[in-house]
Amino acid sequence: MTSGSPPRPPQTDENPLGIDLPLDPLPGHSSLGRLERVLRRGEFAVTAELNPPDSANAADVYERAAVFDGWVDAINAVDASGANAHMSSVGICALLTRMGYAPVFQISCRDRNRIAIQGDVLGAAAMGVANILCLTGDGVQAGDQPGAKPVFDLDSMSLLETVRTMRDEGKFLSGRKLTSAPNVFLGAAINPFAPPYDFRPQRLAKKIAAGAQFVQSQYCFDVPMFHEYMKRVRDMGLHEKCFIMCGVGPLASAKTARWIRSNVPGVHIPDDVVKRLEGATDQKAEGKRLCIDIINEVKEIEGVSGVHVMAYRQEEFVAEIVHDSGALRGRKPWKREVRADDQLVADRLDDILHADNHRPPQDIVGEKAH
Amino acid sequence: MPSLKIDRRTRPGNSPEALNRKTASRGAYQPAHTTAIRRLRKTYTIRLWSVRHSRALEWVYGHFADAFLALHPFWKAVGYHRAEGPVTFIERRAKGLLFDCRMCGQCILSSTGMSCPMNCPKQLRNGPCGGVRANGNCEIEPDMPCVWVQAWSGSRAMRKGDAILDVQKPVDQSLRETSSWLRVTAQAAAKREEANPQ
């Protein structure tokens, strides 16, 4: 720190030996990430979804992540959501970790087979990704390239099991050993709002059995239905085995709500929500208000550990929604997550900028190793 | 076509008609027997019947497996690899008729309420995705009842229906187009021999 700046308030998620050092592993934790720490401490976590850019420009990702700065515990990097091509989730994660954000790396089974996925898991973990969310993914028909080949080599369940095997047993699906296992916090998705309703809590139990440690739900607009689901989840004791985060988001207008209802698979919007938006003079403000109301309701439900804010194309409102709903309960999420190789990268950059005779990077690696 | 009427009100953007319109631009003409949703309702009436009679089929299947196992000395004498051809031929047709079998070679019908999961457009083996429509139909093929909604109702009628709660391994693609019946029989016989070696 420079001597002129005021003293920094103490942070929980920081290495006491130095702000630039990676966090120490905690007993019982599977990752070095912040999200897992926040959840395991029993704090109400907030995550948000980054709208992936259709560009090859890193600045676009930095810009979109900046609006969440200091408001969320982790940022979801979506994997071609809705079967539309965007910047890849592994690419977004690489950029986010570079800037010290804590990303949730989403993997969908639609586009890659098990060989590609296992490689991506290792690559992402090496880039400093601490959280992975395993999804089935939308069908290719949902997107703008319906002629694409749907892969679906794994499903979300076997994907969870695959990553868990890599982490806990240190080997690929084939049994071949890893020299260094990916230490990741494993997540999955749930949709309590789609049939068969009786099977949905059982499916969560299955996902937990396959390795899910936290789950994020589909958009919740029907709070009574979510109540019902959570009651059954509590009866099965699942909320003690897994952190459940409720998916929420603002609707821009009644028209958008109707469009989502008919075009986005798996989103359930009850009629009274559409009516409430229709009746408002400022529909956008009402959509935001509705989102805040839903957060306030779900955060009181026993067994809900956090919210996942999906404000598609309204990302600038996330800070306001999180603030007004009091979801963080006065907590200020810590902004930095340190990668294991941050110091190495800094040294290398320093060397490139200042040293007269450049050392090859492997020399820097060698020095650090000793 | 009367079978394409489902869902028009609730899902305008994703209705069969809309999907047909979306894909119409691909070519000069649309072949008569295909639509954007691929399968018409009449093509899976028998599969739905099988799910409705899952309990009876479970019973039949159990006895059938026992009979196959009793024939183990015969399969062994003929050679499993030589029996593979004719048995696969019969298995493909029998299961094709009843379950729209896709010959994945690792049948888990008894764990999925007698509803073949390979008929799911995403070929999910562990339960329904989050896209199931409110009316219980598939997100991708709006005219087809979700394979897993069917599986859940079928499993509720079955004696050992709770097998649907087990986590299934990913499909081994190298076993496609091979006989699941013979493999299960050979495995059961090997297990039996291991239990009481004489």
TrEMBL record, chain A:
Pathways involved: One-carbon metabolism; tetrahydrofolate interconversion; Amino-acid biosynthesis; L-methionine biosynthesis via de novo pathway
Catalysed transformations (reactions): (6S)-5-methyl-5,6,7,8-tetrahydrofolate + NAD(+) = (6R)-5,10-methylene-5,6,7,8-tetrahydrofolate + NADH + H(+)
CC terms in the record's Gene Ontology section: cytosol
Keywords: FAD, Flavoprotein, Oxidoreductase
InterPro entries: FAD-linked_oxidoreductase-like, Mehydrof_redctse-like
Entry cofactors: FAD
Residue span of region Disordered: 1-23
GO biological process, one term: methionine biosynthetic process
Pro residues composition-biased segments: 1-10
Family from the record: Belongs to the methylenetetrahydrofolate reductase family.
Protein name in the entry: Methylenetetrahydrofolate reductase
Taxonomic path: Bacteria, Pseudomonadati, Pseudomonadota, Alphaproteobacteria, Hyphomicrobiales
Automatic annotation (TrEMBL), chain B:
Classification via Pfam families: DUF5981
InterPro entries in alphabetical order: DUF5981 (IPR022026)
Compositionally biased intervals (Basic and acidic residues): 1-10
Ranges for domain Methylene-tetrahydrofolate reductase C-terminal-like: 87-173
Ranges for region Disordered: 1-30
Tree of life domain: Bacteria
Protein's name according to its UniProt entry: Methylenetetrahydrofolate reductase
Organism whose genome encodes this protein: Oricola cellulosilytica
Lineage of the organism: Bacteria, Pseudomonadati, Pseudomonadota, Alphaproteobacteria, Hyphomicrobiales
